Amino acid sequence: MTDNKNLWGGRFTGSGDETFVEFNNSFKFDKRLFEADLRASVAHCEGLFQAGILTRPESERIKTGLWTILKRSDFDKKYFNDSNSEDVHSFIESRLIQLIGDTGRKLHTGRSRNDQVATAFRLWLREEIIEISKITRELQKSLLDAAENQKEAVLPGYTHLQRAQPILWAHWCLAYFEMFARDRERLDEVWRRVNVLPLGSAALAGTSYEIDREEVAKELGFEGVTSNSLDAVSDRDFAIEFVGTCALVMVHLSRFAEDLILYASSEFQFVELSDAVSTGSSIMPQKKNPDALELIRGKAGRVFGHQTALLSMMKGLPLAYNKDMQEDKEAVFDTVDTVKISLQVAAIVMKNLRLREENTLKAATKGYLNATELADYLVQKNVPFRTAHDVVGKTVLYAISVGKELDELSLEEIRKFSKDIDETVFAALSLEQTLASKNQIGGTSPERVFEALETAREQINIEE
Ligand code: ARG
């Protein structure tokens, strides 16, 4: 209890119940904010000096003390273990006082743990967002590599998990590339809102010391300062929108995983997963399980859970700070860890993946994936699309009954359904033509896809 007494002991005569102290303690997890809190403390100390509250020697002693604590934590792995501090903020303050004596007791002038925690949390998250964006970019690169490696490969596209129309493999890769590009845009936007300094809001009402908040913000690389102290100490929107953004990353990762799990099954046999990301069965020797992808899919739920936890935790809180808000840390920490590792594993899967082009080609040319093409052919012959749709439906029904694909029917057989059809129909029904005709922006024609691939490659290289 000694550390706590240092912080708020004056008002208290009794000591805390052991179970409650353990319950209240956040140091076991918020020590992750250690370095961020130290950096913010150094900037606050400089602000106090500039405001004439600390003398130069005092502020120098405090800063040296803070850097000493940081160095100590680097080489002394047990440094954090032998503490009974309530949280990371009280830990640093008590260590500072231990180290430099009474001058250390001046550091908390003009601030509260309420603006302190908001500051450290933002500072920490700011770096993590950049890191997550970088890892997402690596995954995007692996998608581009996979697309370029098997550039001409064809895949059946699905709706309702029924074969629909043929697409290029590269088109599939680029679809996920786009999703992750939007995720990174969202991360950028969240970053901008995270990158604002709450310090100087003190407990809730603002500080009574003439600390130049803009200067402190500059020192810490924040783009600005928060405009309302009450809001600044009780706002966790930034954490919620960060987790929300990560929830979307996980949705995209999970769909990516699901696609590949299906494609790796014996039923599809579209992709070969590397041994590096698969496991075997302890009983069935033939099994090769897509555990990496299943875990990615499964872990999405954790992040959705964290988002719900944060929203529920905040919704009923009166202004301003409430201890409930201490619950924000583990949700955000676990979100960061989960998203990072899932993105990394997804990139490894992608780097080691081989598309079984022979099989995907077969699948893309079986199952009437060119039926829409026949309808479009009739439209060109001036048949209204709805009529053409009906004609082709009947043709497909007939083709199924004789066990043939559309392009395996003879001209006489097809002409039974429409006299507008002539021998040019076979060129129109070919796989090449089916693909080439999807030639508008965003379509799967090789011309468009190769163009999109180049643009994507340029985009990703510019960021280097
Ligand atoms: N550890 C707290 C948190 O993470 C910050 C301290 C604020 N505590 C307080 N009693 N005002 O939210």
List the helices and strands and how they pair.
Layout: H1 2-8, H2 18-24, H3 27-30, H4 34-50, H5 56-75, H6 88-100, H7 113-149, E1 154-159, E2 162-168, H8 169-194, E3 196-197, H9 213-219, E4 224-225, H10 229-234, H11 237-264, E5 271-272, H12 291-315, H13 328-351, E6 354-355, H14 357-364, H15 371-380, H16 385-402, H17 411-415, H18 425-429, H19 431-436, H20 446-462
Parallel strand pairs: 3-4
Antiparallel strand pairs: 1-2, 5-6
The structure holds arginine (ARG).
What do these coordinates show?
This protein has helices at 2-8, 18-24, 27-30, 34-50, 56-75, 88-100, 113-149, 169-194, 213-219, 229-234, 237-264, 291-315, 328-351, 357-364, 371-380, 385-402, 411-415, 425-429, 431-436, 446-462, and strands at 154-159, 162-168, 196-197, 224-225, 271-272, 354-355. A hairpin with a 2-residue loop joins β1 and β2 (162-168). The chain is mainly alpha-helical. The radius of gyration is 31 Å and the shape is elongated. The mean pLDDT is 95. The strands form three sheets. It has a two-stranded antiparallel ribbon. 62% of the residues lie in helices and 5% in strands. The relative contact order is 0.10. The protein starts with a helix and ends with a helix. The chain contains 20 helices and six strands. α4 (34-50) runs antiparallel to α5 (56-75) and α11 packs antiparallel against α12 (291-315).
The structural class is mainly alpha
* pLDDT < 50 stretches: none
Chemical compounds bound to the protein:
arginine
Oligomer: single chain
Largest sheet: 2 strands, antiparallel
Please give the alpha-carbon distance between the first and last residues: 50 Å
Kindly provide the radius of gyration, computed on alpha-carbon positions and rounded to a whole number of angstroms.
31 Å
Please estimate the helix content: 55-70%
Neighbour order of strands in the largest sheet: 1-2
Order of helices and strands: HHHHHHHEEHEHEHHEHHEHHHHHHH
The number of helical runs is: 20
Global mean pLDDT = 95
